[in-house]
């Protein structure tokens, strides 16, 4: 059995329900043994916690001992309505409020209250993640955006303090421009834009999603480390 399989075997994974002002949001919480941080996923427009792309990334993060929470930003009823109207998937303030509610649930839950928190957002979910991070500067350690629409979070970009990694496909031309402009506006101490050659918006090309997952894992691992360790490493380099 590989080390990755061993970590998966040591992962406590179970379904959860998050009650937010009468809305019951379903999710999947996975906590590898020894996890120091938790990545909360914010899916993109028209997607859910069952998104195969996000589930793949979540499994890679778990193999690196990073906890994950994939949850539905919309209730089943809201999702059914949104399939016809698309009125909620682009309502970033609404989605960010749901994400903030899930974060509060994580902070108060005995099994996750000790973990550092990060957001992994895809497409419009990335905008919601950035808005939520701006609202919780002392709580959110890191944000990773996959093919994100940071332009939809324009009013919050300057307030984001979490280390932010923007990942975009090399063939996703309009979104590349949006992310370059967002990078300039971000004021966080650490920010980075990575463009993956040959990838389109959904990263369906062979090997491209694996690159996203590896980049995300490295980013979260780095920013979930205790401050004392990071300071010691900085001192040793100097």
Write the layout of secondary structure elements.
Layout (H helix, E strand, L loop, with lengths): L2 H7 L1 E10 L2 E10 L4 E6 L9 H12 L3 E5 L4 H10 L6 H17 L7 E7 L1 H12 L4 E7 L16 E7 L3 H13 L5 E6 L11 H17 L2 H11 L1
Parallel strand pairs: 3-4, 3-5, 5-6, 6-7, 7-8
Antiparallel strand pairs: 1-2, 2-4
Helix pairs in contact: 1-2, 2-7, 4-5
Q: Order the strands across the largest sheet as they lie in space.
A: 1-2-4-3-5-6-7-8
**Count of helix runs:** 8
Number of domains: 1
What is the CATH superfamily classification? Alpha/Beta hydrolase fold, catalytic domain
Class by SSE composition = alpha/beta
Portion of residues in helices? 40-55%
Which second-level CATH architecture applies?
3-Layer(aba) Sandwich
Q: Strand portion, in percent?
A: 15-25%
Main sheet attributes: strand count, strand direction, barrel closure? 8 strands, mixed
* Backbone shape: globular
Tell me, rounded to a whole number, the average pLDDT: 88
Any idea of the CATH topology? Rossmann fold
CATH C-level class: Alpha Beta
Cα gyration radius (Å): 17 Å
End-to-end Cα distance: 40 Å
Unreliable stretches: 1-6, 228-234
